[in-house]
């Protein structure tokens, strides 16, 4: 078991630089998510998005749209993303990816 870095009250890392794939697996396990290649594809996409834009996708709608532009209709839809990241997909995926909380996610 990995010792998790400091996180806020919603489970987001205080320092995005402390993220590792092992940390992602621990955070995902808290939500009963077993990461597979489909999860990693989205996590890596989000981390790249963050590098380019210096922010997480600000809402679920924009998250779905960005995934759709990158991977097409099969993966860029809310049902697919909800199956991977239950609840609010953008918020759950960003937490696992070690990124800041999306600004408009409840």
Automatic annotation (TrEMBL):
Looking at the record's lineage, which domain of life comes first? Bacteria
Gene3D superfamilies from the UniProt entry = 3.30.1420.10, DsrC-like protein, C-terminal domain (1.10.10.370)
Record keywords: Transferase included? yes
**Family matches, as InterPro entries:** DsrC-like_C, DsrC-like_dom_sf, DsrC-like_N, DsrC/TusE
Q: Which family does it belong to?
A: Belongs to the dsrC/tusE family.
List the PANTHER family hit by this protein, alphabetically.
SULFURTRANSFERASE TUSE (PTHR37010)
- Return the protein name: Sulfurtransferase
Q: Which organism is it from?
A: Marinobacter shengliensis
Organism classification, top ranks? Bacteria, Pseudomonadati, Pseudomonadota, Gammaproteobacteria, Pseudomonadales
């Amino acid at each position: 078991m990995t010792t998790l870095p400091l996180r806020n009250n919603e489970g987001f890392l205080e320092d995005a630089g402390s993220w590792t794939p092992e940390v992602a697996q621990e955070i995902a396990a808290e939500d009963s998510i077993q990461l597979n290649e489909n999860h990693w594809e989205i996590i890596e996409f989000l981390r790249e998005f963050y590098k380019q834009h210096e922010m997480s996708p600000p809402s679920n709608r924009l998250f779905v749209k960005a995934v759709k532009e990158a991977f097409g209709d099969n993966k860029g839809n809310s049902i697919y993303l909800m199956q991977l990241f239950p609840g609010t997909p953008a918020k759950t995926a960003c937490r696992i990816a070690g990124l800041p909380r999306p600004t408009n996610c409840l």
